[in-house]
Amino acid sequence: MNWRAVGAIYGFEMARWRRTLLQSVVSPVISTSLYFVVFGAAIGSAITAIDGVSYGAYIVPGLVMLTLLTQSISNASFGIYFPRFSGTIYEILSAPVSPVEIVLGYVGAAATKSVILGLIILATASLFVPLRIDHPFVMILFLLLTAATFSLFGFLIGIWADGFEKLQLVPLLIVTPLTFLGGSFYSIKMLPPFWETVSLFNPVVYLVSGFRWSFFGQSDVGVAISLAMTGLFLVLCLATVAWIFRTGYRLKA
Amino acid sequence: MRPSEFRESSAPDAVIRIDGLAKRYATGFEALKGVTLEIRRGEIFALLGPNGAGKTTLISIVCGLVNPSAGTVAVDGHDIVRDYRRARSAIGLVPQELTTDAFETVFDTVSFTRGLFGKPKDPAYVEKTLRSLSLWDKRDNKIRELSGGMKRRVLIAKALAHEPQVLFLDEPTAGVDVALRQDMWNLVRELRETGVTVILTTHYIEEAEEMADRVGVINHGELVLVEEKTALMSKLGRKEITFHLREPLASVPPSLDGFDLALGEGGGALTYTYDAKAARTGINTLIEALREAGISFSDLETKQSSLEDIFVGLVKEQA
């Protein structure tokens, strides 16, 4: 293992983040605060408690997931896309670095950033609503697993994209709708039976549900199924990354 | 000439061995058609060829940026695919394009490369490298604040950051001013003195002529020639002598048929091409023959053909 290379890539990515700390941290915090004001305080006061949890608190796990997903994807996709775009990727490809080390550096940094952001959002949320976390270890596990999985997914998008538009395409057209329809703001049990079944095909449902269980001990689907589905998605992403490095897809002519 | 003719008896001191290297891109374009070449340890090798000849593809394969379609490459005895870590550790690459980060400082970006190659931090070595490239004053500048020439130096510093044995310079002086070009040449010479092998691609013949120990000419994906520069110059080095005539001639008189003569400047100049290294250049006989034919001249000049003429001749021959 070339750990120094992993460290170099990781350090490079974290330095990039620090340079743009304001937009990296402040903008998700502001947008989350807006969700709390609108959904939690204004609309939430008119909504009855779900499973005995006040609506304002109920949406916290979903909001953290929303940030975690979008930030993991955007951080990791930009992290690998930009060197491809500018040409500096030549340095990574010509270095004695294995695919595993490249992925550890880029995905590790992206996941770190989104976990930090997730915790900041959680802290922000606790200012608005009283929070309780029944299963902190499971909460951390979901946080790490989701950050790693979706950073990996973002890495894939960053390799697949051949323009800045495509970089935005997947998050905008697929991830955001899936997150909003994944029970971030409601329990899928509140849906008509048909749509409840359809929702089970949405991977985000499992993430949000499992994550919410770690807070309130209640969930739409079993926590074990949630973990298994997240693990499955992680394995899928890993397999795709392995294929990319074996074939050199979009990296090497 | 066939490329296989350049397969030298395997030199024990070869630092790079390229064998039957071919590359066909997904578009069907055949960039390399079975190149076999050995680079000797410690030499400066110039790879010469017109744009699109396959120079960059060759370098890119050796450095791991492009997958070969066929053939093998070993760097310092390590196969570039099976043993890529050791092979790549030995190589520093200065790419043709000015591809740099924008917001990193010069010092950070050079240290980053060192880390990428698995070397421990060594601020003293980085300082030495930056000083040798006149970059020390700029160490805390962001790369985007630098001029094009300075960025080129940064790329060289990055390539040297991990103390490579082999340095690839892909078109190092394209778009570089005269002063920097001189600096670059001096640097390459200094590197050679420390035992670093330097391979440079160029389409500036003067660069190869000035720098190289050996020259390889590549065209249409084939190595058409590999030769010691001095041997190449003397072997293919033709010389011309031009007589400026007092009276213009309508045509070369039949009595001079035996000489390789060309009439120019509206019949006012007669140019004789000969091999400067030959035992008999034929100049004396020609002058006698001119006198006998009653042709007198007011002046004469000689011209040594350069590597450029050799190169143009080779490439034309192949086209």
Relevant terms:
heterodimer; A: 253 residues; mainly alpha; 10 helices; B: alpha/beta; Alpha-Beta Plaits; 2 domains; six-stranded mixed β-sheet; four-stranded antiparallel β-sheet; 28% strand; elongated; nucleotide-binding (chain B); ABC transporter ATP-binding protein (chain B); P-loop_NTPase (chain B); ABC_transporter-like_ATP-bd (chain B); ATP-binding (chain B)
Oligomeric nature of the chains: heterodimer
Please give the alpha-carbon distance between the first and last residues of chain B: 13 Å
Report how far the terminal alpha carbons of chain A are from each other.
26 Å
Greatest interface and its residue counts? A-B, 26 and 35 residues
User: Roughly what percent helix of chain A?
Assistant: over 70%
Tell me the total number of β-strands of chain A.
Answer: 0
Per CATH, the architecture of the largest domain in chain B is 3-Layer(aba) Sandwich
CATH topology of the largest domain in chain B: Rossmann fold
Biggest sheet architecture of chain A: none
Please indicate the count of domains of chain B. Answer: 2
Element string of chain B (H = helix, E = strand): EEEHEEHEHHHEHEHEEHEEEHEH
CATH class designation of the largest domain in chain B? Alpha Beta
DSSP E strands of chain B, number: 14
Proportion of strand residues of chain B: 25-35%
What does the secondary structure layout of this molecule look like, with pairings?
The complex is a heterodimer of chains A (253) and B (319).
Chain A: H1 3-19, H2 21-43, H3 55-86, H4 89-93, H5 99-128, H6 136-160, H7 164-180, H8 193-199, H9 203-216, H10 223-247
Chain B: E1 14-24, E2 30-40, E3 44-48, H1 55-63, E4 70-75, E5 78-79, H2 84-89, E6 91-94, H3 106-116, H4 123-132, H5 148-160, E7 166-170, H6 178-193, E8 197-202, H7 205-211, E9 214-219, E10 222-228, H8 229-236, E11 238-245, E12 261-264, E13 269-275, H9 283-292, E14 297-304, H10 307-318
Helix pairs in contact in B: 3-5
Family (chain A): Belongs to the ABC-2 integral membrane protein family.
Organism (chain A): Mesorhizobium liriopis
Protein name (chain A): Transport permease protein
